[in-house]
Specification:
single chain, mainly alpha, 2 strands, two-stranded antiparallel ribbon, 82 residues
Length: 82
Amino acid sequence: MKELFLGLLASIFFSPTVLAQEFNGYPCVNDCSGHEAGYRWAEDNDINDPDNCGGNSNSFIEGCQSYAEENAYEEEEEDDEE
């Protein structure tokens, strides 16, 4: 019984779902380079609306959306402080 419990516990901790990489909540397929590129592009272009994100790959778009969501949230906080 103890071996079964330990095996189950190990399968939970070492499952691909647990070990999968994420980029700000978005799952990465192989690595997160596409997400990182989209995030940097959005940062360089001051994108603050996720609807303004486009591209040829989902990971790039998700990286852009990630930056835009963070940037929009920060702008709302600054507006509330004024």
